[in-house]
Design a protein that fits this description.
Elements lengths: L9 E2 L6 E2 L17 H5 L4 H16 L12 H19 L4 H11 L7 H20 L22 H10 L4
Bound molecules: zinc ion (ZN).
């Protein structure tokens, strides 16, 4: 299972750039236009939402990027990129984690004519990284890997039979 958040694409009223106005006082990353606080309010939980989905995905799948990810809107797009870079970071284990994330965003994606997105995604990644460190996300273990502690004492023959029989009880 993966978590998508339904956030309508936010478009700058001046330049029509897509972005996530995730904090009060944020400006359009493309044209620097000021954004109305009333617009921002709807997106104020965006960072927390992404972090929550990361936590859930890691618990469920052992990584942030779920097997399949449908990119239906800008929020999906941002979520998908964050999953990929944080997964890569945990695999590589760089000394300077934040720098590593920034380098990935700088060099590993083709931003085409959406260069403003690069800075925007870097800002979002930094915000996420702060929470990631606070909550020790790198220590999250997938439920799949949390096995019950094995019984030290082997089952007796009778216990084995009883266990087999129990399965047939209503
Ligand atoms: Zn703009």
């Amino acid at each position: 299972m993966s978590v998508h958040y339904r956030k309508q694409n936010y478009e700058c009223s001046k330049c029509q750039a897509f972005f996530l106005p995730y904090k009060i006082g944020i400006k359009c990353p493309n044209c620097d236009a000021s954004i109305d606080e009333i617009d921002t309010r709807e997106y104020i939980d965006v960072i927390k939402s992404i972090v929550d989905s990361m936590e859930l995905h890691k618990l469920q799948h052992g990584r942030y990027f779920p097997g399949a990810w449908y990119t239906g809107d800008f929020m999906d797009h941002v979520q998908g990129m964050m999953y990929q870079i944080f997964d890569a970071m945990e695999k590589v284990k760089p000394d300077d984690e934040e720098k590593y994330l920034m380098d990935l965003l700088e060099n590993k994606f083709d931003w085409g004519n959406q260069l403003y997105s690069k800075k925007h995604l870097k800002d979002i990644a930094s915000e996420i990284y702060k929470i990631y460190k606070d909550k020790n996300f790198d220590e999250i273990k997938s439920r799949e890997f949390i096995k019950p502690i094995p019984q030290r004492k082997p089952l007796t023959k009778w216990e084995k039979i009883k266990k087999w029989f129990d399965k047939f009880l209503p």
